[in-house]
UniProtKB/TrEMBL annotation:
Signal peptide: none
Protein's name according to its UniProt entry: Mss4-like protein
Superkingdom: Eukaryota
InterPro entries in alphabetical order: Mss4, Mss4-like_sf, Mss4/transl-control_tumour
Basic and acidic residues: compositionally biased ranges: 178-191
Region (Disordered): 178-200
One Pfam family it belongs to: Mss4
A GO CC annotation given for this chain: membrane
Keyword set, alphabetical order: Guanine-nucleotide releasing factor, Protein transport, Transport
Listed PROSITE patterns: MSS4
GO molecular function annotation: guanyl-nucleotide exchange factor activity; zinc ion binding
Amino acid sequence: DKRLSGKSPSPAPGLATVMMENPDGTMHAVPMSLADVMAALSAQRSVKSKIQGKKEASPPVGINKENTKFVVCSQCNSKILKPGKSRLVKKEIFLHHMALREEDEKQTGEKLSDFWLVTDQFSFENIGVSRKVTSGNLNYKYLACADCDLGPVGIRYMDQPTHFYIAHDRVHYYSKDEAKTKPVESVESKSAKGNPTTSK
């Protein structure tokens, strides 16, 4: 859990209070204008996008069946899961193909069998959940990238509210070593002080 350092200042009219992370892991509150907040978030995204995920032929799984690499969106590289936050399961599930939503588009899909099972919603770094879908006797919600809306990358059945399934074939990965490699910062990102926290 993040610790707070000092008291949060009251923002002036027209300003928002943004929590910034210190090098030692503590947090401090900084009054910022909306324009500054958007600029800082844009800079943060530009740094994150430097780490490119890759498609893996086989799930990167450890001896305890946990994911050994970061699970990321295949389109925008946004982190979905950190290593060790899910367990590989074999389960045949039908998912619609990932495509732009078109009203007249014929909905087709495929059956997949390799899934990362997440049993705690707070294990996610980033995930979006659709409205309820009913198909026959099944009620479920699709999972998608919360940043770029690419999906479905997984599914959650309504009768198993604590079981989230992320399809191996719908995501990319990068290793802990790649994560340790500091990306080259752009001029824009260097102007942003600290890292504003965003929702998981």
